[in-house]
Amino acid sequence: MKIKYFFMALVAVVAMLTGCTEDFEAARLSDLKVSSSFVTISPDGGSVELTITSKAAWELTDIPSWVTVSPTSGEAGTTIVKITAEKTAKAQEAVMKLVSNGLMQEINIKQAVIEDDSDPITVAEALALIKQGYEGAAKVKGVVCKISEISPQYGNATYFLSDDGSYGKDNWIEVYRGKWFDGESFTKGDEFSVGDILVVRGSVINYNGNTPEFSQGSEVLSIEKSLIKIDSLNTKEPIAVEGGDITAYVSNNGANYTVEIEESAQNWLFIKKFTADSVVFHAVANAGGDRSAKVVFKTTDNGKEYTSETTISQKGAIVAATVAEFLAAPVGDSQYRLTGIVNELYYYKGNVSGFYIADHSGKVLVYKPEGFTGAEAKVGDVVTVVGKRGDYNGTAQMTSCKLETVNYSATAISIADFKQQADSKEVYYILTGTIRKTTQEEIDGGAKDDITQYGNFYLQDESGESVYVYGVLTGWGGNKGEFANLNLTYGDKLTIIAYKDTYKSKGLIEAVGIYLSHVKAEPAE
Q1: Confidence band (pLDDT; 50, 70, 90) for 114?
Q2: CB 206 within 8 A of CB 212
Q3: For the CA atoms of the chain, what is the radius of gyration?
Q4: Mean pLDDT (whole number) for 225-240
Q5: Which of 403, 400, 467, 402 is nearest to 429 (CA)?
Q6: How far apart are alpha carbons 11 and 18 in whole angstroms?
Q7: Is 432 within a domain?
Q8: What is the C-alpha to C-alpha distance for residues 496 and 368, in angstroms, rounded to an integer?
């Protein structure tokens, strides 16, 4: 593919966009949205999915004859639309329109072809074109700098190419779910390695505006194996938290090779022994969380450098933390242990996909804990979870996690039934009611009235039954005397988890509580 081809294609797209006029009102993004206004389909054919979000019924018009679209219309809400094209021997492009309630969005569809005798371009050249707005057919030559997955199960691979084999900022293009030679499936899982030089053909896009990639369905045209390869590590297990050794076995067909440990790991990972076909690494004891280091092996041949890399990991201590401390921690492999109350369940596309855990310092999403279906813990339960600090679109969450224990299973109960339970500091109940002022008669009976510090008051449910609340912590692990931080007052609706106790000398039944949630009272008219 010649550079000239790309620029001509880009000019054609610009001309197409500026030459189109419509009487439709420009779409308000909040009322009618499409996940991408550009659709690029491989010359070998295939399907692309779009997400349409609309506040009213919608329809797709001006559908070109060379694609199949399903569905072509829908109601308000979110809909997945599938666009499919057959293999083509000629370049095709069209503009499809999404209309709804007087609004319109244009969707540009392209299917380009590549001349078989064209030369591949570099990754840098491809990135420059994508940055200029080009989306279409490309043939790119680069060094595999990172592999996310080579999947025999699904027959595809996701990996990254750069010009020099490094994986840095803005120097790579992702190959997303690409295929092997002639579009065949991957069957072994080791068809190529980091450091190999590939020529890849397919359709390039700028996914979500920030990820340059070959879209699904690209294929490998050629491979040049690296002269150096890490055959294996002597164990698949991470180095123990106490420290220890791990051996990398190397095949080198170039000149003498060198080994580089990434700078951030050089204070805990060292080379203990170096031979022609193996390197023994030693890790010191780890007082922090899980950690890992990229190790790069390099050799040269006729002035050309070849690389291969592996990652060496070490187990770490699990760091006990509050939610606030977890939120302040950096994203990484360190593991944290949080204890708190299940604040609410989290749903994704109608399915339970985790829950929010809250303590006195804040709350955070525990995303897809291992084996969690929603039956293992419920709102109000006191649980302990273990996982890593993750992030999704700038919002912190716990990932690669598991529900370690349910410390206390709280049961929702009426106040009348609560008062009939046996005293126990090990059994929690969920109580909901309105905060009311303690009467003088109740004070004479041993109760207190305090919403400015400790949280002493009566909680009254819809039946009219009341129970004396003897102090409310602002969350699991919180301190006494901080109730004022919740900014609650008489008339507010409060939900707590509490255990039952009795002030023996006065015979006063008490609910010793921990804050779960509240609803502020409606202001008086």
Answers
A1: low
A2: yes
A3: 31
A4: 84
A5: 467
A6: 11
A7: yes
A8: 26
The one-letter amino acid code at 50 reads: L
Closest to 497 (Cα-Cα) out of 414, 420, 432, 444 = 432
* Pair (27, 61) in one structural domain: yes
CB proximity list for 277: less than 8 A, separation 6 or greater: 249, 250, 251, 252
pLDDT, greater one: 461 or 116: 461
Q: Bridge partners of 197? A: 143, 224
Q: What is the rounded CA–CA span in Å between residue 49 and residue 368?
A: 24
Residue 24 maps to a domain: yes
Residue 469: how many other CB atoms lie within 10 Å: 26
Q: Domain count of the chain?
A: 5
Tokens, residue 230: 């890490």
Which helix (DSSP H) or strand (DSSP E) does residue 421 occupy?
none
Cα 107 from Cα 104, distance rounded (Å): 10
Q: pLDDT band at 26, cuts 50/70/90?
A: very low
Tell me whether strands 411-412 and 424-436 are parallel, antiparallel or unpaired. Answer: parallel
Q: Which of 289, 314, 339 is the last residue in one of the domains?
A: 314
For residue 104, give both structure tokens.
Answer: 């319109």
Which range of residues forms the domain containing residue 280? 228-314
Same domain for 127 and 150, yes or no, is yes
CATH number, domain containing residue 386: 2.40.50.200
What are 134-174's pLDDT values in tens digits? 888 899 999 998 999 999 999 999 999 998 888 888 899 99
Same domain, 284 and 346: no
Same structural domain, 404 and 438: no
Which of 178, 196, 224 marks a domain boundary?
224
In a domain, 524, yes or no: no
Percentage above 70 pLDDT, the chain: 92
* Shared-domain flag, residues 263 and 326: no
Euclidean distance between CA atoms 20 and 26, whole angstroms:
13
Of residues 207, 219, 203, the one with CA closest to residue 9: 203
Q: What is the pLDDT of residues 336-375, one digit of tens each?
A: 999 999 999 999 988 999 999 999 999 999 999 999 999 9
Please report the beta strands in 302-378, taking only residues with DSSP state E, as ranges in sequence order. 304-314, 319-320, 335-348, 351-359, 362-367
> Quick one: 306 and 339 in the same domain?
no
